[in-house]
Amino acid sequence: MTITENKVVLIHYTLKDASGEILDSSEGHDPLAFIQGIGNIIPGLEEALAGKAVGDKVKATIEPEKAYGVRVEENVHIVPLSSFQADGDEKLVEGMQVRVETNEGVSIADVAKIDGEEVTLDLNHPLAGETLHFDVEIIDIREATKQELEHGHAHGPGGHHHH
């Protein structure tokens, strides 16, 4: 069986950035389970895995356009510090992530900089603009169940767990 649309695929993967630093890996965990072809994973990885079979090892270099997008300067906003209601005593510090309301709903922003009363928020995905290097081993491929397709993600080990 090969990886085609609506198959559930289990992979082990290591993700590195352009400098070779490991950003994420399934080593020591259950394999990652996803449904091919419906956007569970970034488009470039779906493309790289299409047609592959169990046991295949795939090295994929994925440009930002097919990963988490390019950095968009419009996604960087300067807002007044006073607009943050501190949760309890939590102090806003550079590098932390905050939830912000946007026109598209709630989004996660990085606090890029705090300058006096001005806070610079970056709503770009942390990996926006990065070329990603994946090392993938395909562990298993199976048909997705009707329920999985309805829910839009794989169930069972490595998939989404619902409590």
Tag the structure with descriptive keywords.
2 helices; mainly beta; 163 residues; 39% strand; 5-stranded antiparallel β-sheet; 2 domains; Chitinase A, domain 3
How is this structure best described in words?
The mean pLDDT is 92. This protein is mainly β and 163 residues long. The protein folds into two domains: 86 residues, Roll (Chitinase A, domain 3), CATH 3.10.50.40; 50 residues, Thrombin, subunit H. Helices cover 8% and strands 39% of the residues. Strands 1, 2, 3, 4 and 9 form a five-stranded antiparallel β-sheet that branches. It has a four-stranded antiparallel β-sheet with strand order 5-8-7-6, with no helix packed on it. It is built from two helices and nine strands. β7 and β8 form a beta hairpin.
Secondary-structure topology with pairs:
Layout: E1 7-16, E2 22-25, E3 32-35, H1 43-49, E4 57-62, E5 76-80, E6 97-102, E7 105-115, E8 118-122, E9 132-143, H2 146-151
Antiparallel strand pairs: 1-2, 1-3, 1-9, 4-9, 5-8, 6-7, 7-8
User: Kindly, what is the distance between the CA atoms of the first and last residues, rounded to a whole number of angstroms?
Assistant: 31 Å
Structural class, from helix and strand content? Answer: mainly beta
In helices, the fraction of residues equals: under 10%
**Average pLDDT, to the nearest integer?**
92
- Count of discrete alpha- or pi-helical segments spanning 4 or more residues: 2
Can you tell me the CATH class of the largest domain? Alpha Beta
Give the total of domains.
Answer: 2
What letter string, H or E per element, gives the SSE order? Answer: EEEHEEEEEEH
Principal-axes geometry comes out as elongated
Low-confidence region ranges: none
Main sheet overview:
5 strands, antiparallel
Per CATH, which architecture of the largest domain?
A: Roll
- How many β-strand runs? 9
Bin the strand percentage.
35-45%
